[in-house]
Amino acid sequence: MDWLFFGEISLAGLAMGGLYALIALGFVMIYKATRVINFAIGEIMMFAAYLFLAFAGGMELSAWIALPLAVIGGSILGGVIEKTMIRPMLGESPISVVMVTIGIASILVGLVEFIWTADPQLLPNFLPREPVFIGPLYLAPKIAYGFLIGSALLIIYLLYFRFSRGGVALRATASDQAAAYSMGINVRRVFNLAWVFGSLAASLAGVLVAATGGLSPQFGIIGLSVLVVVIVGGLDSILGALVAGVFIGWLETVAGAYLGGEYRMPATFVVLAVILVIRPYGLFGTHEIERV
Amino acid sequence: MRIGDAKQTYEADEAIWTSSTQKFWFGLLLLILLLFPFMADSYLLYLGCLVGIAVISTTGLNILTGFTGLISLGQAGFMGVGAYTVAWLSLNTGLPFPVTLLLAGLVAAAVGILVGLPSLRVKGLYLAIATLAASVFLHFIFAEWESVTGGMGGLSLEPAHLFGLTFQSDFRMYFIIVPLAVLMVFAARNVLRTRVGRAFIAIRDRDISAEILGINLLRYKLMSFALSSFYAGVAGGLFAYFYRVVTPESFPLSMSIFYLAAVIVGGMGNLLGGILGAAFMTLVPEALKLLTAALTPFYPNAPVFMSPMLEIIFGALIVGFLIFEPHGLAEIWHRIRRFFRLWPFRN
């Protein structure tokens, strides 16, 4: 076994996993606050990446202006989705709400094809090109810098959750909605904010992933990998999202490198199936007790 | 509520036929279905076959999702199992189609039971994701088990045959598909008014209460999975005979979502809804194709925008129905009927 190769693959996988962790964080945020499983998260990422393409490629803005614009666009999209399509579903069965997000995903794919055609596109390169070496291990610069930017946002989020007023309101709403209401927290606003911030994380990750792997209307498939991450980690656990994100990213890349690309999805879904059988609420999720 | 229609026994309440008017309309419908292929052109015939296959699969999913409350994203995978079973049997054994279709249903039901096994432990969305995992595995098996499934190239098969008669044209396939669809919807209607069907509905309404009432959850949930995937398997088998080629890409995840959407748009937990939903969702793309063809002389770009428009309309239908008409087309149908029944009064 070639340990150098394994190390490099693992490193790339872990970096990719960092981005998964960021997306999963956005997903968990939305789930914790609003109890909505967002099947459209991959499509929100895709939409933000296309916005970046339009700003940086089409309007020829500097990438460092286009990136914030695209991310803001993505988070506005999240907020609008929540206001117009998720809010009316409040109190409906989870199945219906999930189907709404699936419908939204389809609408977004259609919109993207409508505006930017179905052809695959390449994002203009905006990350430094010098190869990165960690010890003897080579890491593709796009992945390395993507990981750095992603983790920066991740750390900001974690600090925000822990210390800011908005973060406290979000955690309070997640743990007990009625109590949060009676303590004067504007729960509706928290719902909206959760979607905005969740989509923000997804949008940034979307641009970074698209910068390394290219962009097409099928990009939203990545949402399935994220789904695996959050189920394995536990739907309502931020720690779970981080750990499982890194692990699934690593597993996917290693399986892809050693077994071939067609094994990427089945490998992660095996983990998913095992977790569902052993610990259905995920590695770090809360075990909900049901009462009649 | 119809006036003068008080039910006095459980038998009367559970009866399929409640009035002779109903029998008359149903007979008329059967007659129309029978005469349809003699009057329709080949395009309409093709659509009729597609709708028939969709009705079978949607009815199956409706039993699982609409009546038992178990959401499944694996319907396309089960259809694939049925289609591959038919393809393999017809290539290797040459059995006539009633046998292959039955076996397709049974194999799919067996796979369905296997997939349904986690359903006792996980439910709701977790179950949806478990079935999603199943459909990923099934797709992987279809693509990689080359000695049986032919790999990515798939399998092509001979037309369906029985007693030396081959069913090559859409015209002949119609006479397999549509009677089978009618039969299977009827069977579903019958199952749902038995003890088993009532158990399904009790599980949907509150599974813990159902268990306290003495319903064996695992048994009935698996039964629902088996029944639902049997329908999917038969539909998949018909799909195989209809297109006569089966590839892993014939049964993508989007197809599972299509059937879920058909159940929702039609009306969850309503067999009529499933039928209406299946027909509606199959015909919308065709209507859009016609519209595009009509618009092309004026806007030469129209065909380019058709496929994105289809995605948008598909999504908007799901979202729109869930927000504005959660009971689906069936509810609209009932409203229309109520209007005529009560006319000239408004309510």
TrEMBL record, chain A:
<dbReference type="GO" id="GO:0006865">
    <property type="term" value="P:amino acid transport"/>
</dbReference>
<dbReference type="GO" id="GO:0005886">
    <property type="term" value="C:plasma membrane"/>
</dbReference>
<comment type="similarity">
    <text>Belongs to the binding-protein-dependent transport system permease family. LivHM subfamily.</text>
</comment>
<keyword id="KW-1003">Cell membrane</keyword>
<feature type="transmembrane region" description="Helical">
    <location>
        <begin position="61"/>
        <end position="81"/>
    </location>
</feature>
<feature type="transmembrane region" description="Helical">
    <location>
        <begin position="93"/>
        <end position="118"/>
    </location>
</feature>
<protein>
    <submittedName>
        <fullName>Amino acid/amide ABC transporter membrane protein 1, HAAT family</fullName>
    </submittedName>
</protein>
<keyword id="KW-0029">Amino-acid transport</keyword>
<dbReference type="Pfam" id="PF02653">
    <property type="entry name" value="BPD_transp_2"/>
</dbReference>
<keyword id="KW-1133">Transmembrane helix</keyword>
<dbReference type="InterPro" id="IPR052157">
    <property type="entry name" value="BCAA_transport_permease"/>
</dbReference>
<feature type="transmembrane region" description="Helical">
    <location>
        <begin position="12"/>
        <end position="31"/>
    </location>
</feature>
<dbReference type="InterPro" id="IPR001851">
    <property type="entry name" value="ABC_transp_permease"/>
</dbReference>
<feature type="transmembrane region" description="Helical">
    <location>
        <begin position="221"/>
        <end position="251"/>
    </location>
</feature>
<feature type="transmembrane region" description="Helical">
    <location>
        <begin position="138"/>
        <end position="161"/>
    </location>
</feature>
<feature type="transmembrane region" description="Helical">
    <location>
        <begin position="263"/>
        <end position="282"/>
    </location>
</feature>
<keyword id="KW-0812">Transmembrane</keyword>
<dbReference type="GO" id="GO:0022857">
    <property type="term" value="F:transmembrane transporter activity"/>
</dbReference>
<keyword id="KW-0813">Transport</keyword>
<feature type="transmembrane region" description="Helical">
    <location>
        <begin position="36"/>
        <end position="55"/>
    </location>
</feature>
<keyword id="KW-0472">Membrane</keyword>
<feature type="transmembrane region" description="Helical">
    <location>
        <begin position="193"/>
        <end position="215"/>
    </location>
</feature>
UniProtKB/TrEMBL annotation, chain B:
<feature type="transmembrane region" description="Helical">
    <location>
        <begin position="21"/>
        <end position="39"/>
    </location>
</feature>
<feature type="transmembrane region" description="Helical">
    <location>
        <begin position="97"/>
        <end position="117"/>
    </location>
</feature>
<feature type="transmembrane region" description="Helical">
    <location>
        <begin position="312"/>
        <end position="333"/>
    </location>
</feature>
<dbReference type="GO" id="GO:0015658">
    <property type="term" value="F:branched-chain amino acid transmembrane transporter activity"/>
</dbReference>
<dbReference type="InterPro" id="IPR001851">
    <property type="entry name" value="ABC_transp_permease"/>
</dbReference>
<feature type="transmembrane region" description="Helical">
    <location>
        <begin position="71"/>
        <end position="91"/>
    </location>
</feature>
<dbReference type="GO" id="GO:0005886">
    <property type="term" value="C:plasma membrane"/>
</dbReference>
<keyword id="KW-0472">Membrane</keyword>
<protein>
    <submittedName>
        <fullName>Amino acid/amide ABC transporter membrane protein 2, HAAT family</fullName>
    </submittedName>
</protein>
<keyword id="KW-1133">Transmembrane helix</keyword>
<keyword id="KW-1003">Cell membrane</keyword>
<feature type="transmembrane region" description="Helical">
    <location>
        <begin position="171"/>
        <end position="192"/>
    </location>
</feature>
<feature type="transmembrane region" description="Helical">
    <location>
        <begin position="222"/>
        <end position="243"/>
    </location>
</feature>
<keyword id="KW-0812">Transmembrane</keyword>
<feature type="transmembrane region" description="Helical">
    <location>
        <begin position="124"/>
        <end position="142"/>
    </location>
</feature>
<dbReference type="InterPro" id="IPR043428">
    <property type="entry name" value="LivM-like"/>
</dbReference>
<feature type="transmembrane region" description="Helical">
    <location>
        <begin position="45"/>
        <end position="64"/>
    </location>
</feature>
<feature type="transmembrane region" description="Helical">
    <location>
        <begin position="255"/>
        <end position="280"/>
    </location>
</feature>
<dbReference type="Pfam" id="PF02653">
    <property type="entry name" value="BPD_transp_2"/>
</dbReference>
